[in-house]
Write a structure and sequence with these properties.
By secondary structure, this protein is α/β, with parallel strands linked by helices. The protein has a single domain, classed as Divalent-metal-dependent TIM barrel enzymes (TIM Barrel). Helix content is about 40%, strand content about 15%. It has helices spanning about 25-30, 55-65, 85-100, 120-140, 155-165, 175-180, 185-190, 215-225, 240-250; strands at about 10-15, 35-40, 70-75, 110, 145-150, 170-175, 195-200, 200-205, 205-210, 230-235. The strands form two sheets. The chain has an eight-stranded parallel β-barrel. It has a two-stranded antiparallel ribbon with strand order 8-9. Helix 3 (about 85-100) packs parallel to helix 4. The longest helix is centred in the middle third of the chain and has 19 residues, at about 120-140. The radius of gyration is 18 Å and the shape is globular.
């Protein structure tokens, strides 16, 4: 286990878009500050309007120099519950392509949204998801544990059994729980299955803001220590100012060890 820069059991992460610049520029700036950088892919390769070159060897060199790891946010336009099999297969192919391309970086997690298809009934959407997740699980084999299904706007109970049954992990986004008025305690009960945790503030109904609640940060520190969580906690925000505010707040919270 590499020594975390933040002196906690878990590794502290930031996103690859806190500067209005390319991924490499963001990673170079963040590498001395955090233990992990979340590589964000908002669009699938075939849907990108402005393709961004990705130098995997350069990312690996930076990681080696700074004791850095990576997590990956898979494109949010992947639709494993889509109405057409062609679209679902395209999503599976994109996941497999990105995982293979980024394998030299040994990512800690590949985070995935199971997007709700509004034009389908809930039952039909869930049936499509089950087929896609079964196929993805079979294609990945043991590597399926690297894919962490993230909680988004709907109750995680809808997909939790599929996530567990097909051998995937959980990506727990605390900001989403708060933003959508979901049960924080129920979310934290998933910690034994959590591979990656997202943490960000919520202000006036907007998430991915700077952290501002010291009491909440202390509670999270305690719960992660109790769970012996050694994974990554990514401060999932998209500006350097919000990241600096959040890092300063965490510095005020004494780390808890057992």
């Amino acid at each position: 286990m590499m020594k975390p820069k933040n002196c906690r059991l878990w590794r502290l992460g930031a996103t690859s878009c806190v500067l209005p610049a390319d991924i490499i520029t963001n990673v170079r700036m963040l590498a001395p500050l955090v233990d992990d950088v979340q590589l964000l892919f908002f669009e699938s390769a075939d849907k990108m309007r402005l393709p961004q070159p990705l130098n995997v060897q350069a990312l690996r060199d930076i990681a080696d120099e700074h004791d850095l790891t990576y997590t990956v946010h898979l494109p949010t336009d992947i639709s494993l519950g889509a109405a057409t099999r062609i679209e679902r297969q395209a999503g599976i192919s994109e996941i497999l392509r990105l995982m293979a391309k980024l394998a030299p970086l040994d990512p800690q997690s590949f985070d995935l949204h199971l997007v709700r298809e509004q034009d389908l009934s809930e039952a039909h959407w869930l049936d499509n998801l089950a087929v896609s997740l079964q196929e993805l699980s079979a294609a990945l084999g043991a590597e399926k544990r690297m894919v962490a299904i993230e909680n988004i706007e709907y109750s995680y109970d809808l997909v939790a059994s599929m996530v567990m049954d097909y051998g995937f992990s959980v990506c727990l986004d605390l900001g989403h729980l708060i933003r959508y008025g979901q049960d924080l305690e129920a979310g934290l009960s998933l910690l034994p299955w959590v591979r990656h945790l997202h943490y960000h503030g919520v202000q006036e109904g907007r998430d991915h803001q700077a952290l501002s609640d010291v009491t909440q940060a202390r509670m999270l520190d305690r719960r992660l220590a109790e769970a012996m969580y050694y994974g990554v906690v990514t401060l999932e925000m998209y500006s350097l100012e919000n990241l600096k505010i959040s890092l300063a707040l965490l510095d005020r919270v004494a780390p808890i060890f057992f």
